[in-house]
Task: inverse folding
């Protein structure tokens, strides 16, 4: 069985500007994998390359053993679902229709859904907590509700690999935990492989099996949260001091922001 | 927001039944009303074949009014569908079926044909068709290299080609002095009075398969509304789907235009009208535009025939005169 994602010597560039360089990594099936790093480190580009939307200049991205940009679009969408950072939501489709669009790679050429598709949509809306919004048109939803609708649509695709770009950025703490718990549950119960871009280092530490720390398109570090989230590596990546201690929940490291005035304080002053 | 309460199948069924009835009624009216006065008894007899084939009314109804009403229906359906597709494809609410240079090219072709004194069919129609196909090819060639800003450059080069063609048209009009000028102006405003029975049937054979093809692309059109990136993630081959839609739509619009002239307004507004009434789902909007747009143009053509004027009024005048107030009324009510 090939790994869910196998990346070798990947190089991606927009024009002359390299965005990702000499990147190799392997994500085994059923892993919860989180990509972290400062702004413009190439996290989103890496995710898009895995989704087949960005063509590498050099190297390969293989999804279950076949090159991501060689898959027929429909076939890739049955394996991989994407929750993008900004999905256009200005068209007044109702929530249920939006979620049903996740069935697109599965339905026949007339584009009409069957009972099975409606059941899957109902289930996806239920587990993401948007079932009560089913008939509401998208422009009437809040940012957090929209995010959960887009996640429901991705689940409705029944993917084996789910790629999410900062899915918790617009959510309050309760919904952040709900979404992360949901991802973990799907990973454990259905063997779903989850790859996520996140800026929330503590959420990453609490949920990820594997972390990848990127800076300027290069790998700083990768491995378990304990291996990656160290004071030295975080300072190298972010260029600022971050205090790392033990999470009181007893599960790995915790990262704390340090205001400048605490750094300048002299001992004993 | 009552339109969201019905399921897709219910809305589809409603659209097909109501739209079908409306179209049948419009066609029947188009056959029964005209400048030849006759009572409804004689019409009924002529419709049911009760009066002999030599009867003048039978000939008028079956050989003149029916082909013309059918052509109006086909043209109305095509323009509405064309507008619907281009508005989704270019993600631009102001897109109409002529936007990629179809109007300019076909008008130059048609006016050259009229200037040369060719018959409306096939001569002028053929030149108009060739004209629109060549401008379309030109627009596609200009944008072939562009990848990222494809939609923007498609739109802009279409507008530019149309602008260039209008200049040529103005020039041709300015050097024409005789009665041909009248025909040219009528063509530019949209005019169905030249239709012949064989013309209608040839058009139908090409247009109906195009309608079916677009109907099967309803779901891809919905996905394209969500933007290229999302459409791709949902399994759509965006480049291939856009290309197929672009070619089918331009082909059928060119075919409609070369026989009817530039009937304005229908293609821009009928899709918006049904979006207001039915929501954004193309699986419902495509049948609605086909049936509703067809009925709309049949009725407008009927009005242009029976309204008192010097001869006949061009149908393009009626579409906007009737359609624009109707649309504004619906827009104000929906708020």
Result:
């Amino acid at each position: 069985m090939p790994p869910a994602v196998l990346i070798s010597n990947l190089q991606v560039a927009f024009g002359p500007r390299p965005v990702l360089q000499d990147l190799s990594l392997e994500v085994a099936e059923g892993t919860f994998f989180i990509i972290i790093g400062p702004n413009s480190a190439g996290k989103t580009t890496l995710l898009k390359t895995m989704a087949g939307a960005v063509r590498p200049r050099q190297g390969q991205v293989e999804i279950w053993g076949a090159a991501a940009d060689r898959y027929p679009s429909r076939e890739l969408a049955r394996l991989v679902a994407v929750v993008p950072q900004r999905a256009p939501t200005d068209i007044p489709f109702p929530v249920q229709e939006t979620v049903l669009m996740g069935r697109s790679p599965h339905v026949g050429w007339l584009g009409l859904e069957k009972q099975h598709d409606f059941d899957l949509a109902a289930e996806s809306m239920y587990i993401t907590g948007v079932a009560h919004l089913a008939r509401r048109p998208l422009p009437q939803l809040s940012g957090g509700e929209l995010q959960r609708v887009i996640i429901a649509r991705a689940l409705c695709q029944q993917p084996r690999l789910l790629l999410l770009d900062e899915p918790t950025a617009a959510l309050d703490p309760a919904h952040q935990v709900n979404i992360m718990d949901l991802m973990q549950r799907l990973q454990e119960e259905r063997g779903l492989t989850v790859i996520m871009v996140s800026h929330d280092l503590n959420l990453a530490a609490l949920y990820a099996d594997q972390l990848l720390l990127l800076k300027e398109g290069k790998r700083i570090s990768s491995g378990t949260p304990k291996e990656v989230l160290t004071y030295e590596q975080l300072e190298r990546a972010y260029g600022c001091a971050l205090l790392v201690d033990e999470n009181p929940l007893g599960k790995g490291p915790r990262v704390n922001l340090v205001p400048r005035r605490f750094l300048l304080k002299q001992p004993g002053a | 927001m009552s339109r969201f309460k019905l399921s897709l199948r219910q809305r589809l069924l409603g659209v097909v039944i109501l739209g079908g009835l409306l179209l049948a009624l419009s066609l029947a009216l188009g056959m029964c009303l005209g400048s030849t006065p006759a009572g409804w008894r004689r019409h009924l007899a002529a419709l049911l074949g009760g009066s002999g084939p030599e009867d003048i009314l039978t000939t008028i109804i079956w050989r003149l009014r029916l082909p013309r009403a059918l052509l109006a229906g086909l043209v109305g359906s095509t323009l509405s569908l064309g507008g619907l597709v281009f508005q989704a494809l270019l993600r631009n609410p102001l897109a109409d079926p002529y936007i990629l240079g179809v109007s300019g090219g076909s008008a130059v072709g048609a006016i050259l044909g009229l200037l040369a004194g060719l018959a409306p069919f096939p001569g002028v129609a053929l030149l108009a068709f060739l004209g629109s196909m060549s401008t379309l090819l030109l627009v596609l060639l200009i944008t072939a290299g562009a990848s990222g800003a494809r939609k923007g450059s498609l739109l802009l080069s279409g507008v530019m080609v149309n602008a260039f063609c209008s200049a040529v048209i103005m020039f041709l009009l300015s050097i024409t002095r005789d009665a041909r000028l009248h025909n040219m102006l009528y063509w530019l405003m949209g005019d169905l009075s030249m239709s012949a029975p064989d013309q209608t049937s040839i058009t139908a054979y090409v247009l109906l398969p195009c309608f079916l093809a677009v109907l099967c692309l309803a779901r891809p059109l919905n996905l394209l509304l969500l933007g290229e990136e999302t459409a791709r993630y949902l399994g759509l081959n965006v480049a291939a789907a856009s290309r197929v839609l672009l070619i089918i739509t331009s082909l059928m619009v060119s075919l409609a235009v070369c026989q009817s002239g530039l009937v304005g307004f229908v293609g821009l507004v009928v899709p918006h009208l049904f979006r207001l009434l039915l929501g954004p789902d193309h699986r419902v909007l495509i049948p609605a535009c086909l049936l509703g747009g067809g009925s709309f143009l049949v009725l407008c053509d009927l009005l242009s025939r029976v309204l008192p004027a010097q001869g006949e009024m061009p149908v393009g005048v009626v579409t906007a005169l009737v359609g624009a107030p109707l649309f504004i009324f619906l827009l104000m009510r929906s708020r």
Residues 56-89 of chain B form the longest helix (34 residues). Chain B is about 75% helix and 0% strand. Residues 23-334 of chain B form a domain with the ABC transporter involved in vitamin B12 uptake, BtuC fold (CATH 1.10.3470.10).
